[in-house]
Amino acid sequence: MSRKLIAVVGATGAQGGGLVRAILADPSGEFAVRALTRDPESAKAKDLAAAGAEVVAADLDDAPSMRAAFDGAYGAFVVTNYWAPRSPEEEAGRTAAEMELAQAGIAAEAARDAGVTHLVWSTLDDTRPHFDGRDDVPRLDDGRYTVPHFDAKAEADELFTKYGVPTTNLRTTFYFDAFVSGMEPVRGEDGTLIISMPMADKPLAGIASEDIGKAALAVFKRPDLIGATVSIAGDHLTGDEYAAALTEALGEKVAYRPLPWEQYRTLGFPYAVEVSNMFQYYAENHRTFTGDRDLDRVRELNPELQSFADWLAKHKDEIKVP
C-alpha cells in the first residue's frame, strides 16, 4: 500500500521541521514526506534527507516552484515567516504582512492546481475585532492592522477558501522556545534574574514549537477536520508561573517584572510597538484565547503534548543565563 505524501513548507524551520520529524517518526507509516526548502544544500535540509525525507527546492515567492512541489501530494502544510530576514529593497517593496498575504495566495493557488486533498494552514487569531473602536492601541501598516503578524495570517485564511482548497486552520500561539532565543532571563541591577513580558497578571498560552508539527500530523489523520479551525497550546501560565518554572529548572530565583504596555512600546527595539500590542491582546483577551485552546482537546490530538515544565526539562541547558 503506497503512503500518502505530505508536502511541508518551511521544512527547515521550527513548525515545518517539527512536522517532518513527526511524520518520519510515526510508527503507522501512513505518510511519506516531501520537505520544501529554499536551500536543499543547507545543513538542516541535508539532515532531513538523511533521515528519510524527500527534499526539494521551493520558494513561497515563486509560484511555479510551489506548484511543482505540491504535485502528487495528498496533503500540504503551509506556514509563512513574518520575521524572515529581508533586504532593504524587499522591505521598501512591501511590508512583511503584505509578503505573507502574497505567499499564502501563491500557496493556495498551487494547492488548488495540484489537487491537494487536505491542506493545514498555520495561522493566528485576528486581533482587530478586539481592539475595534479604541484609540489607546497604535495601528500599524498604514492603519490596516494592530498586530500585523497575527492579523495578516488571519486575513489570509480566506484565500484558501477563495481557491477552494480543503483546509484546516491550525491556530498556534507563543513559543516556549522564545526563552532560548529572544526572551531569555536578564540580570537586574540587584542581581536577580528577570523575565518581563507585558502580560500584567494574566495567563499566556504557550507551546513547544515541536508540538505544532505533531498536532499538524494528527490533523492530517483527521479528514473530518477539513473546514475546521483547531487552536492549540501546551500550557496556560501567568508571568509569575513562568518565572516559578524557570526558577525550578535553572536552580536560581527568576522574578517576573512586567512593564506596562505603553512603556514597552517605547523600548526602541524593532517591532516593540507590535509586540506590545500582541501581549496586550493576549492579556485582555485571555479568557477567549486560552478557552479556545483547551489543553485536554489538544492532548487528544497529541498525547505527547509538553507542558512548560516538560519543555524546560529538555531545554533548560539551552537557556543562556547572564
Structure, explained:
- The protein is of the alpha/beta class.
- It has one domain: NAD(P)-binding Rossmann-like Domain (Rossmann fold), CATH 3.40.50.
- Helices cover 42% and strands 16% of the residues.
- It is built from 14 helices and 13 strands.
- Strands 3-2-1-4-5-6-11 form a seven-stranded parallel β-sheet, sandwiched between helices. Strands 7-10-12 form a three-stranded mixed β-sheet.
- Helix 3 crosses helix 5, helix 5 runs parallel beside helix 7 and helix 9 runs parallel beside helix 14.
- The longest helix is centred in the first third of the chain and has 19 residues.
Task: Furnish the topology, listing elements before pairings.
Blueprint: E1 4-8, H1 14-25, E2 31-37, H2 43-51, E3 54-57, H3 63-70, E4 75-78, H4 88-93, H5 96-114, E5 118-123, H6 128-131, H7 148-162, E6 167-171, E7 174-175, E8 186-187, E9 193-195, E10 204-207, H8 209-220, E11 229-231, E12 235-237, H9 239-250, E13 254-256, H10 261-264, H11 272-284, H12 286-292, H13 295-301, H14 308-315
